[in-house]
Write a structure and sequence with these properties.
- By secondary structure, the protein is mainly alpha-helical.
- It has one domain: Alpha Horseshoe (Serine Threonine Protein Phosphatase 5, Tetratricopeptide repeat).
- It is built from ten helices and no strands.
- The protein has helices at residues 3-18, 27-31, 34-40, 48-65, 69-82, 86-105, 109-129, 136-153, 157-170, 174-186.
- The radius of gyration is 16 Å and the shape is flat.
- The relative contact order is 0.12.
């Protein structure tokens, strides 16, 4: 499978999971997501800012699904301004990453790099905001995406390796393990 395809699948996975599509997600990740459990629990009363940000994020998803990407990105930015949770940064970083992959595939290298830099910033903020013990799977996925960006967009194999390895420190991420093996084979 080509890196573009893996990246798009992964960003869809992350986007779907953090949008609380529980029935489609692996049990192990559901166990590690206290923040997402709180957001999905019908007995938890969310403050008005969180509710407003949730509405904006839902509207962002609807806009993106309707091929109104710019509107979706604008709404995600607004949601983050209101409630800058790690999950929202992860969602936004994943969306930017996916858009960067599409632009990269379509030969828009400069636009792709701009999006990858924004994704890198959002993913870094997500990592900083997550509780690494409670949200190890999310932290691992964010580091994996950073590795993909550094390997494929910036052609920096050393940094990519470091990010893949960091991903494995948090969670046994098969994609990160495979990426490290591919790097090892290239260096033979």
């Amino acid at each position: 499978m080509h890196w573009f395809d893996r990246a798009v699948i992964l960003s869809i996975f992350i986007f779907s999971f953090t949008s609380l599509a529980w029935s489609d997600m692996p049990e192990i990740i559901a166990d590690q997501t206290k923040e997402a459990e709180v957001l999905s629990s019908p007995t938890v009363v969310l403050d008005s800012k969180t509710q407003q940000a949730n509405r904006l994020e839902s509207q962002a998803i609807e806009s993106i699904d309707a091929d109104q990407m710019e509107e979706g990105l604008r709404l995600m930015q607004q949601a983050i301004e209101i409630d800058p949770s790690a999950v929202r940064h992860m969602n936004y970083g994943s969306i930017l990453f996916g858009n960067g992959v599409v632009d990269f595939k379509n030969g828009k290298k400069h636009e792709a790099v701009r999006l990858f830099k924004q994704a890198e910033d959002q993913l870094s903020q997500a990592i900083a905001g997550f509780d690494p013990q409670a949200n190890a799977a999310f932290v691992a996925q964010a580091y994996f995406l950073l590795g993909e960006i550094y390997l494929n967009a910036y052609n920096d194999q050393d940094m990519a390796h470091d990010f893949y390895y960091k991903s494995l420190e948090y969670y046994d991420n098969t994609s990160a393990r495979d990426a490290i093996e591919q790097l090892r084979l290239v260096h033979k």
